[in-house]
Amino acid sequence: MAKSLMIVDDSATMRKIIMRTIRMSGLEFDRTEEAGNGVEALEKLNAAPVDIMLCDINMPEMSGTEVVRKVRELSSCSETKIIMVSTESSQDVMDSVMADGANGFIAKPFTPEKFQEKLSPYMN
Q1: Is 59 exposed, middle or buried (0-12, 13-18, 19+ CB in 10 A)?
Q2: Beta strands 104-107; 81-86: pairing state
Q3: Average pLDDT of the residues in 21-36
Q4: Disulfide: which of 31, 38, 84, 97 matches 62 by Cβ 3.0-4.6 Å?
Q5: Is pLDDT of 22 > 70?
Q6: Which alpha helices (H) appear in the chain, and where do they start and end?
Q7: What per-residue confidence (pLDDT) applies to 76?
């Protein structure tokens, strides 16, 4: 089944690194989107929901935790899987974003194997 992906990170370089790492993991998406912040992500999701969203936590305009809460309010995104990708890997931060509705967490620095492990369950 074809899947769609959105990468939300304020760093264009980091979005490229994540995309390259996903390609290296062997995972394939028929549609990929990028957003430089949470506001842009929400605009794009309103136009076209995605299956999986990878989201940074520390971003200007709207933090990743706020993005998670806002996405969970969108009925069109009720099935969207949200995986946080961040250097913020303390248990408190992870517990908080999971409580807000995130489905998983990948700590930076990451590997293709980590993306394979965390995203594969959502690829069917």
Answers
A1: buried
A2: parallel
A3: 96
A4: 38
A5: yes
A6: 12-25, 38-47, 64-73, 91-100, 112-119
A7: 94
Q: Which two tokens stand for residue 116?
A: 């394979």
Domains of the chain: 4-122 (3.40.50.2300)
Q: What span, in angstroms and rounded, lies between the C-alpha atoms of 116 and 118?
A: 6
Dihedral of the alpha carbons of 31, 55, 83, 101, in degrees to the nearest 10: -120
Q: pLDDT at position 14, please?
A: 97
What is the tens place of the pLDDT at every residue in 73-93?
A: 999 999 999 999 999 878 898
Q: Name the token pair of 37.
A: 């912040």
Residues in the chain: 124
Which residues make beta-bridge pairs with 55? 8, 84
CA distances for 119 relative to 4, 17, 49, 75, 115, angstroms: 12, 16, 17, 22, 6
Residue 53 β-bridge partners? 6, 82
